[in-house]
Every structure is written in C-alpha cells, then in structure tokens.
Amino acid sequence: MKVVNLLAVVEEDKCRGCKICEMVCPVVAIQMENRIAVIDSERCRGCAACEQRCPDYAIKMVKREQPIYVKVDVSAVDYTQIEELCKKAKFNPEQLICYCTATRAEEVAAAILQGAKSPEELSYLTGVRTGCKVECIQPLLRLLDAAGIEPQRPKNGWQWYGKTVTVWEIPEEVKQKYASRGFYFDEDIKLLDRVVEAPLQGRSDT
Amino acid sequence: MRSPLTPIPPRASQYGIEPELVKTRVSELPGMTSVLLKELFPDLPEVIYPSTEGLAAVRTATVNALQKVDMSKIKPEHSVNILASHHGFTLLGGEPYAELLRTIKDVVEARTGCKNIRLRAGVGLRFRETEEYIKRYGLDKHFNGKAIGVAPIDQGIAIETEIGTLYGIKKVYDADWIIHAHNSDVREVHFHRQVDRAVKPFGMSYARIETRSTYHQNLGPRAANFTARAIFDSPFVQSKFAFAAFLTMAPNGIVGVDVDSDLYALNNRVTEIGCRYYGKMMTLLGEVDECIAALDFPAPAVYVFSAGVIYANFAGANTDLYDLEMPLPAYTWYTESFYGKRGRPLLDEIPPMNKAIKMAVHNYAWTGYPCAFFTEHIPTVVVGQEQAELFNRDPQNLSYMKHAVVSESTEAAMEFAYKTSGTRKVIVFDGAMGGINVSEPLAELLIRKAPEVSERVEELLLPKWLKQRGINL
Ligand code: SF4
Ligand code: SF4
C-alpha cells in the first residue's frame, strides 16, 4: 500500500536522452520520445529513482496536487489461496516485505492471484519497491516463482536481473565449511520457518 | 563536570534540511556535559585522529601501512578502481576517510606508474550521497575527474558464487584491479553482527539490489552477511582483488591504518577490535535505565552517532547484539518485517525496542532511510516544520511523521521531552569526537557503571563473542 504524493517531472531542456531513467524506473513509467524522456504521470509511483540517477539532473520530484492511493484489495481473493502462496514462498502472509511502504506479503500475493505477472506490475499495483527501491526485489521474485510465473525483465532495463538463493537452498557443504565462522544457517532456517507458521493477527485493515 | 564537546556540524545535503535551519544543537542547552571515552574505558587504544597532528597523521599511517603490500601485479598500463563507501565519510567529519582515499591513489600511482586510477564510491539508500562527498572533499579533482558515485540500481554484473549467481554493480568491477578502501567502524552491528564485517561492502555498497535483498530478506538475520563472503570469494572478484586498506576505528577515534592483501586476516583483527571496544560501549549503553535520546547529526535517524555507536544500536541495546545465540535484535529489518497487522511481533521472543528510550528528540537527522519503525515504537519529537515536511516528501519515510509530533525549537522539544518523560537523563547522538555529550545525571550513571561493564566484557562476554566467530585470541 502506498500513498503516492510525488511525481517525477522532466525538464526537457536538460534531458540528453541517455535512457538511464527509463532503465531504472520500477514501474516502467518512462519512455523516450524524440530522444527526450517522457513520464506517464498516472503510472509514476513517486520513487525518485529516475531523479536520483539522471546524470544531467534533468528530473525533479514535485508534490502531487492529488495523492494517488495505491493498494490491492486483499479481500477480493480467497484468503486460503493467499496463505498457500505466501507459505510456498516461505513468507508469513502478514510479514512486511517492503519497509518503506509497509506492504505485507499478503497484498503482493493477492496482486499475483489477481493476475500480476512481473515485479513491475506488482510495484505499480501495490507500491512495493517504490520507496528505497532496493530491499524488496527478492520477495517479489520469490512470490512470483511460487505462483509458477517466470517474469520477463523489461527489455534493456536494469530494474532487476534475477532471483537469488534463499537460506533454505544453501548447500550442505557450504554450511559445513563455514560453520565455525559465525554463520548460523540452520538456526536461521528454524527461526524463519517459525515466522512462516506464526499465527495471523487478523485482518484489521479490511 | 566537563563542558560539552563540539558536535559534528550540519552538512548541506539534499537529504537534510539547510544547515542554517539548525539553529540550536542539543549539546548547547543547559545541563549538558560530556564524558571522555578514555575516562570510561581507560584501556581504549591511543588514537592518531583526532590529534594535534590532524590529517597528516592519517596520511603518514596510510603511507607506512601501504609499504607492506605487494603492488607488483599492477602494471602501468592497467586500470585500478579504488572502492569506497559512503559510511567512511560519516566518520569524524569525513576528512580522514577522504585523506585515506587520496593517499592510496598517490601511493599506488607513485609505486606502480599506473595512471588510470579511479574512485568508485558506493552508497546505501541515498543514491547521490557519495556524489556529494566527492565534490565536498575535492576527490573529483584529486582523481582527475575519474571519481564517481555508484548506486545499487545502476547497471549490474552477474557474479557466479558458491551459492549461485549474485549481482554486483558493473562500474565497481570495470577495472583490472580493485582496492577495497574501507574502515572498521562497526556501525550496523544489528545487521552484520560483527561477522565478516570487513567483507560486508562486497554484499552491500558494491552490490546490486538483488544481492542486498538477498542479504536482508532471503538468508536470515545471522546468515545474511554470507552474501558478502560469497561474492568476495568468487573467482571473478578474486581475479581483480589487489588489497584492502582500512581506517582502524575505535569508539574514541582512528587507531591506525591496516593494509592487507589477505582480507580475512584483516577481518580477524577488525572482529577483535570491534567486539572488544565497541562491545564495551554498547554494553555500557545497555545499562542506561531511562533517557531521552537526542538525534543531532548529518545522517539518517538510524545512523546518528554517539560514542561510536549509532542510534539503531542504542534502540537495540536492551539485548546483546554481539551474542549470536540471540537471533533477532530489537531492531533489524528482519525484526521489523516480523511485526504483524496488529502491530505485535509474530513471535513471542522478538524483543521490544529499548524501553529505556523514553523519548527521542529529532533535532537534526536526514531522510533517505526507512525509519518509520522508530517513530512507531519510540515517542518522537521532530524539531521544525521544514524537517517534518522533508520527511513527508521522502518515499522511504512516508509514515515517519504519522507517529511523531513537531516542535518549533530545540529548546521547546527538550522541555516537552523532560516534562512528559519524567527523566533528566539525556544522550546526544551528535558525533562528538573522543567523548559523549550527555546530561549530568547520565554522565554520573555511565561513569559509575563503566568499570563493571569493562570487566564483564573482558572476562565473560568477549571470549564468548570471539568463539562464536571462530576467532582465537
Ligand atoms: S536520465 Fe536524465 S538525461 Fe537521461 S534520458 Fe532520463 S531525463 Fe534524460
Ligand atoms: S516511478 Fe520512480 S523512476 Fe518511475 S517515473 Fe516515477 S519517480 Fe521516476
């Protein structure tokens, strides 16, 4: 869930058409037209990735007159399906997977169950990955993977490259090799498993 | 009682309010004093900075330390990336780290004849932060225009590791050789738990979002930093690694410069110094029974410093952050994510935020890091409407002000905090060097408790902490 109160705006005279903003936008809201970046203001989720990476300082973040409320209705989906998908991806449905927007696994799962097929669509629909833009990419890829979806990367984009290892998949020989160096793999697996199974606190926001 | 120490001044940055808006520092208010860290822990090492020699001491120590490293594989026709991180520029005003970087460049150039030496400076979640430092410290000039900030959403490069593919930032690795220029300050002990601290940037400031997310979401609180080791040990990174050069830090300043082509040997030294000296400081801060925490430093709220310890760690000082038997600190992203919809932890054993912090007075701290968890759990007063507005515009802190109140001045905020919290103990996170700015009642408590803490760490805790990390003294 996110209240989008900012909007990216291109200062056309400064834009040199390098496409970097297009390659980093997590919701694919930027396209090049006549070698100038054009932002789809309805799609923009105000994350400032483009503004922070434009080498020519050609993008400004401005306050929206009307904030956009971005949220997927969790109640529109059978909750047992949400629980199943989250558990398969090894998340508790109530677990936060995006700290900046306080988006929980259940909301992303609901978006997937309603047809979202890529991290970009999930960011657009839930606001996830439009805060720090860094920490929540793996949960999105894990949930999509658990739903049997193989997302396509935006063409030529740098939005994301691939799903990576989880602690459950660390090879035994690696665990053994580093057992005395302070890496508590098996203990962390136990902890995370208990989080996955922890009782839900209730659907207070529906 | 001593007068307060000079705090680190506010810095012009897109992530904070204009320095002139910071009208009063908390340490200037009546009732504030300071304690030197050497008074608390006389066994703290002697420092080369701050000292009367100033930055020259850092240059000399760097030149001397570099003498022991073999640079023969760097040829005149090669390219070298000196890898830096934002964190170093937050230490003791930032100049010492900038001087380390400048000196490495000068020495490598003189010794090898290599002219193509670049600076690649990684960041956390403020993607232009090191770009600001590069300008501030004149590093662009010193590196002949070859100094850039790199961010985790920049173009990536796949790195094959023993746990599968992870991803680095392409520009970090676009040279024949890399030099890992860092520091041993512990900072985020809630994340890395002093496990492979010296290796961490390979999984963080030099890494893409996929890797950082692996660290913070996929591996668990005590396995997280393995991402760094996996990347560093990869054949790709090993083929480029020349050596590491670190500012060796203690809570009271810079102890020296450590250079090694064996990063794990350096890491063992870093682990010991981190556990011993920072461990003592954190354990002492865990003894504070009640206080107001004043945030007053040019960094995001979690990263403001006092006695070499960051606020995020004070918020978890009710638990032993160094004890790896304890899975979750009171604050870490894993912990934060394990709070359910009713605002309660999903597991009973998740510790609450440090109850000793009765109130936080946010006099001056930056945006650019998700901090809403802090205002949600610790009553917080933010000084100045401009600062509140800045947080409301930060995509990482859209809820920060939801749980905080605004006060129009530092004086009014502190008065409010004194009245409503009922405590006169104040700790100021303002980066004061060599000591800690506190109110008189807190100074008394720290001085009284320090000897017992020192003994407990030496006899009981330190041996346990080091054993957990496979280090024999
Ligand atoms: S990053 Fe900046 S210069 Fe490059 S296309 Fe976008 S707006 Fe234009
Ligand atoms: S979503 Fe982010 S990157 Fe995309 S246009 Fe908006 S501010 Fe820029």
Question: What features would you highlight for this structure?
Answer:
heterodimer, A: 206 residues, alpha+beta, Alpha-Beta Plaits, two-stranded antiparallel ribbon, 8 helices, globular, B: 473 residues, alpha/beta, Rossmann fold, 2 domains, 6-stranded mixed beta sheet, 5-stranded parallel beta sheet, 16 helices, 17 strands, binds iron/sulfur cluster
Protein model, in words:
The complex is a heterodimer of chains A (206) and B (473). Chain A is of the alpha+beta class. Chain A folds into two domains: 2-70, Alpha-Beta Plaits (2-Layer Sandwich); 74-197, no CATH class. Chain A has helices spanning 20-24, 49-53, 79-88, 105-113, 119-126, 137-146, 172-177, 185-197; strands at 2-10, 30-33, 36-39, 59-70, 96-98, 103-104. Chain A has a two-stranded antiparallel sheet. Chain A has a two-stranded antiparallel ribbon with strand order 2-3. In chain A, a hairpin with a 2-residue loop joins strand 2 and strand 3 (36-39). The longest helix of chain A has 13 residues, at 185-197. The radius of gyration of chain A is 19 Å and the shape is globular. Chain B folds into two domains: 19-44 and 279-466, no CATH class; 55-250, Rossmann fold (3-Layer(aba) Sandwich). Helix content of chain B is 34%, strand content 21%. In chain B, helix 2 (55-66) packs parallel to helix 3 and helix 10 (263-285) runs antiparallel to helix 16. The longest helix of chain B is centred in the last third of the chain and has 29 residues, at 440-468. Chain B starts with 31 loop residues before the first strand and ends in a 5-residue tail after the last helix. The interface between A and B is large, with 71 and 66 residues. The site of one iron/sulfur cluster (SF4) has 14 residues of chain A, from helix 2.
